[in-house]
Amino acid sequence: MSEIRQDNEYKQFITQLKSQIQSAQIKAAVSVNCELLQLYWQLGEQIVEKQAKAQWGEGLIKQISRDLQTEFPDMKGFSSRNIHMMRQWYLYWHQEPAIVQQLVAQIDQAPIFQIPWGQNLLIISKANSSEEALFYVQKTIENNWSRAVLTHQIELGLYQRQGKALSNFDNHLPSPQSDLAQQTLKDPYCFDFLNLTEKHNEKELEAALTENISQFLLELGAGFAFVGKQYKLTVADKDFYIDLLFYHIKLRCYVVIELKTTEFKPEHVGQLNFYISAVDDILANEQDNATIGLLICQSKNKTIVEYALKETGQAMGVSEYQLTRQLPKDYQSSLPSIEAIEAEIGGLGDE
């Protein structure tokens, strides 16, 4: 056999094959996880039913554990504690009509079967309601969070912060973009990963965020692609500089972020309004949606913000930020790669 020449056509071909294999591996892993969780659900359901009908006591779970481990010595997951958690997991979600309805309709599509067992147990142990639990299930699916990242998101109260920024999106953006934009923003933003003095200024805050861009992107949420800091815009032969400029892949628009290390003031809105208009005219193209702005300040008065946002002609939101705890080292694990972000941005022009 003659050796195949390593030309561009072959390289593209082998890259395609590798991609298909990796995709199949991921699908296989997801399928195995789904099958395992369906088994756990069925075991939990049957234990609950037997305990109710036969009035078997607490010793039932320990006996089941011994018998199953004897019968399947090479199979993990049949400890007394794990079987007890199967029962608790079933009882937790059995009270949620939306989950039960989906299980009856199409069991393999239920979201709780799409995430690992460890994440499932973490969610039901830490969430304060089934609505909050389902929120974290969906977010884990969307972002492929590890257990460490999920733990930190719950501890930082993402459920309580998501979509809570004060904004005027309903008045300036069409539906459903206004709803998506609102859910994209948080209040407050947690900049735990920054080591700043109490009297830090805006330049120090901006520098610290860009030096820790991976953590900042994760705190902003899925879809944000970093364009630049102190981004220069020239208007009428004068240079203006945006603190931070992003592009949001899902919203398909630029996002202008201005940082203020003071309490919110109405005049901040005028500055942000100007930057949004300039980005729309200078940077955005016909395929882009209207640019939105986000003002992140140290503190704010809700009434003052609401009055200020009524007077602006551009879509913007206002949030606070806080500096508290440290992030775990593997917090970065759920971030998309730079290549993935570039590929998504590059694909925008093809649609």
The pLDDT mean sits at 84
Largest sheet: 7 strands, mixed
Going by helix content, strand content and strand pairing, the class is alpha/beta
Encode the helix/strand succession as letters.
HHHHHHHHEHHEHHEEEHEHEH
Number of domains: 2
Architecture per CATH nomenclature, i.e. the level-2 architecture of the largest domain:
3-Layer(aba) Sandwich
Give the N-terminus to C-terminus distance in angstroms.
43 Å
Q: Please give the radius of gyration in angstroms.
A: 25 Å
Helix content: 40-55%
Total of DSSP H or I helical runs spanning 4+ residues: 15
Let me know the number of strands: 7
* CATH class division of the largest domain: Alpha Beta
Strand percentage lies at 15-25%
Please tell me what the overall shape is.
elongated
The stretches of 5 or more residues where confidence is low (pLDDT under 50) are 326-338, 347-351
CATH third-level topology of the largest domain? Trna Endonuclease, Chain: A, domain 1
Explain this structure:
The chain is α/β, with parallel strands linked by helices and 351 residues long. It has 2 domains: 8-144, no CATH class; 160-348, 3-Layer(aba) Sandwich (Trna Endonuclease, Chain: A, domain 1). The chain is 54% helix and 15% strand. The protein contains 15 helices and 7 strands. Strands 1, 2, 3, 4, 5, 6 and 7 form a 7-stranded mixed beta sheet that branches. Strand 5 (253-263), helix 13 and strand 6 (292-299) form a beta-alpha-beta unit. Helix 1 packs across helix 3 (80-94), helix 5 (117-126) packs parallel to helix 7 (147-155) and helix 11 (202-211) crosses helix 12. It is elongated, with a radius of gyration of 25 Å. It starts with 7 loop residues before the first helix and ends with a helix. The relative contact order is 0.09. Residues 326-338 and 347-351 have low confidence and may be disordered.
